[in-house]
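Tokens as discussed.
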């Protein structure tokens, strides 16, 4: 076998040697005239092959070329915009971040800069600029002068932008160039010059997955393309030569150099004079960068939620596939207030930096766990969601925490107290703060302190587990579950007494929904975050029906009583940091919540015009703070609401959300009960205690004012002339002043 292989190789070498020597002999014997004809034949064959190649491309052998009719209907994927309630841009949905606009929506400065830089003879040629191609060949390739730019016309570049190149190996570039020339010529037949410019500016890439002049203008300068001046227009047009190299954010110095070159070309083309040129070149580069990428920008977590909802609505109304939020350039208007949203995001990020440091320090590790957080703000009078923060860092974790279920701790207790009131337990009931056993269940207070008798208001303000357990033992867990179902909580809740201490797993979204009636006097409204979906030209595809009336889920006075209890939490209880640390002096109520071992920290807060909630914890509940100080809701979650509220109170455009007054009770006796002391060392006689409350009112000099206000509608047999004969009568102005003066006289301000 080896001998045969050697023999075959020897024969091959002899054959090649023979024919190579004959070729050399042939070359040496050729005359100049013969060489001329050989070259002529070679050129002819080359031209013929080139023509055949061009013809093959023209007739689609290397991929179909769009017809004139198809070019009349060029459609590009357009990004949809997510707006806040006032029309401010929150984010976008896109495969390619492109926004198509009309000619009138693009500044003339952009057109001038583009033509001057990319195709100065644009209005003279019919798609192919032979002079430019010749210039590129001689100066760029032969003289190595890179400043001459490319030879492709704007029409050719448009063809390249609209129709992607196919991978054909070594033939990719030749085929693509021929196609672009053919398509450019056809585009010039189908569209006017102005239309071609608009098409080009709507499709050209600017890097960072941004396509089109409108999207680029909003990304780098936070303005519409129609408002671009010469320097900003020149900056963006300058990027077309090399998106990354001349990116004004990444390479500002090179961007300015390129911008000034564009301005010089605008001068040479006659679009601006020399004075203007020098002025524009001297201007500093000032960006107003506004990213709305998947992991950056405003309302990133909310963007995912509302996007899924909007697409589901469109599929249901118009059929699956009829509209696509990622390609159809829709306008999705949400209920979010961008000012509140940004304040919420700052509050979450700012506080979580401190909490994470405390967590890492306590565990002496920065890799045990990354804590997460969520925040929600709702307008209780409309149900509209005003701010939504689903996490701390979307790039790190895409888990949506507003809708995630976690144990809610003591933030569940107000529902227990509301149910008790609805079931007929008087708000002036005083319960002894002692540890009791209910079968095998023996709940105790988190601080281990006992003693005294607490009213319902006092017990909730101190978040006493002993009294919450006593209440649910009297009313039963099923009554509480039925009540919270009416208030909007849909998650499964076990029918066990321990739910009184917050063992149920609920979402922040549900908690905000269920707290709304406490702020409105018993009226619940469904939460909503989507206002409308429209096409770019204003055709309304979907419009939300507002929940104006709502549903009464608590009696008015009982809702007011619970809210008053929650006010005591903020004034003197576990939520007092809202006032002491963050200086919120307007009407405010709230409740802290802490779960076992500090795995979850909660705070639900409310003003007359806004319900707020915050949650903090690790995605894995087994990762938690060691100490009860750091692991409590007052440390973990309350500061988020506090920071947010402090920011809102200082911002004039949204300060009204923290102002106003809460609903007041209809019944006189409800108002009186709100003045009872929070706790006493003994079990009081309720009638005697009520008399003492009224005596204090008399000593305050308020009795005459009250008598004048209420007139003959109260029983004269009462020594203070204030017992109502009508049970459901709104408290008048003078009466309100009485309770403002009396409020807190009997409050116990001792800390836990």
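Sequence:
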């Amino acid at each position: 076998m080896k001998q045969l292989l050697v023999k075959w190789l020897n024969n091959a070498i002899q054959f090649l040697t023979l024919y190579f020597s004959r070729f050399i002999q042939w070359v040496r014997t050729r005359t100049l005239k013969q060489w001329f004809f050989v070259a002529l034949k070679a050129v002819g064959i080359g031209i013929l092959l080139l023509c055949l190649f061009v013809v093959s491309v023209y007739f689609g052998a290397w991929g179909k070329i769009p017809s004139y009719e198809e070019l009349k209907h060029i459609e590009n994927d357009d990004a949809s915009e997510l707006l806040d309630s006032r029309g401010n841009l929150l984010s976008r949905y896109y495969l390619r971040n492109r926004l198509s606009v009309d000619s009138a929506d693009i500044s003339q400065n952009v057109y001038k800069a583009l033509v001057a830089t990319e195709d100065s003879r644009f209005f003279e040629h019919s798609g192919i600029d032979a002079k430019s191609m010749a210039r590129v060949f001689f100066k760029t390739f032969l003289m190595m002068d890179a400043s001459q730019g490319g030879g492709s016309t704007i029409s050719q570049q448009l063809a390249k932008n609209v129709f992607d190149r196919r991978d054909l190996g070594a033939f990719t570039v030749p085929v693509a160039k021929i196609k672009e020339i053919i398509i450019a010529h056809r585009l010039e037949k189908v569209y006017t010059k102005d239309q071609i410019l608009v098409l080009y500016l709507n499709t050209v890439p600017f890097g960072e997955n941004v396509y089109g002049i409108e999207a680029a203008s909003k990304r780098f300068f936070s303005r519409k393309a129609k408002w671009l001046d010469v320097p900003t227009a020149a900056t963006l047009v300058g990027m077309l030569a090399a998106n990354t190299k001349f990116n004004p954010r990444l390479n500002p110095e090179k961007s300015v150099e390129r911008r000034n070159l564009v301005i010089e070309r605008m001068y040479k083309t006659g679009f601006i004079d020399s004075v203007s040129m020098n002025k524009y070149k001297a201007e500093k580069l000032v960006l107003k960068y506004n990213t709305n990428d998947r992991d950056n920008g405003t309302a990133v977590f909310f963007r995912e939620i509302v996007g899924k909802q909007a697409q589901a609505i469109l599929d249901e109304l118009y059929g699956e596939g009829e509209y696509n939020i990622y390609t159809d350039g829709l306008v999705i208007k949400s209920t979010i207030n961008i000012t509140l949203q940004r304040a919420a995001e700052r509050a979450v990020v700012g506080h979580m930096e401190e909490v994470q440091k405390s967590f890492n320090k306590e565990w002496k590790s920065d890799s045990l766990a990354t804590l997460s957080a969520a925040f929600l703000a709702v307008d209780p009078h409309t149900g509209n969601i005003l701010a939504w923060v689903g996490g701390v860092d979307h790039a790190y974790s895409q888990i949506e925490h507003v809708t995630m279920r976690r144990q809610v701790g003591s933030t569940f207790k107000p529902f227990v107290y509301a149910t008790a009131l609805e079931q007929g337990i008087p708000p002036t009931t005083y319960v002894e703060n002692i540890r009791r056993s209910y079968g095998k269940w023996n709940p105790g207070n988190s601080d281990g302190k006992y003693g005294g008798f607490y009213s319902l208001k006092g017990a909730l303000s101190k978040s006493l587990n002993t009294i919450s357990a006593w209440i649910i033992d009297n009313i039963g867990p099923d009554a509480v579950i039925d009540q919270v179902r009416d208030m909007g909580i849909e998650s499964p809740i076990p029918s066990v007494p321990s739910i009184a201490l917050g063992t149920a797993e609920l979402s922040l979204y549900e908690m905000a929904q269920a707290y709304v009636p406490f702020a409105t006097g018993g009226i619940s409204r469904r939460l909503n975050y989507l206002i409308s979906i429209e096409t770019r030209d204003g055709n309304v595809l979907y419009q939300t029906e507002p929940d104006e009336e709502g549903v009464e889920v608590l009696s008015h006075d009982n809702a007011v009583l619970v809210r008053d209890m929650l006010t005591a939490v903020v004034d003197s209880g576990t939520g007092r940091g809202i006032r002491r640390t963050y200086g919120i002096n307007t009407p405010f109520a709230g409740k802290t919540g802490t779960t076992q071992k500090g795995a979850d920290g909660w705070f639900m807060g409310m003003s007359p015009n806004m319900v707020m909630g915050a949650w903090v914890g690790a995605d894995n509940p087994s990762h938690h703070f060691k100490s009860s100080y750091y692991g409590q809701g007052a440390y973990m979650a309350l500061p988020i609401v506090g920071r947010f509220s402090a920011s809102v109170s200082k911002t004039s455009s949204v300060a009204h959300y923290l102002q106003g007054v809460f609903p007041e009770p209809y019944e006189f006796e409800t108002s009186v009960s709100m003045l009872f002391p929070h706790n006493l060392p003994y079990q009081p006689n309720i009638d005697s205690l009520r008399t003492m409350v009224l005596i204090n009112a008399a000593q305050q000099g308020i009795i005459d004012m009250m008598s004048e206000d209420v007139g003959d509608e109260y029983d004269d047999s009462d020594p203070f002339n204030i017992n109502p004969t009508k049970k459901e009568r709104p408290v008048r102005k003078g009466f309100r002043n009485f309770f403002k003066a009396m409020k807190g006289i009997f409050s116990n301000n001792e800390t836990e």
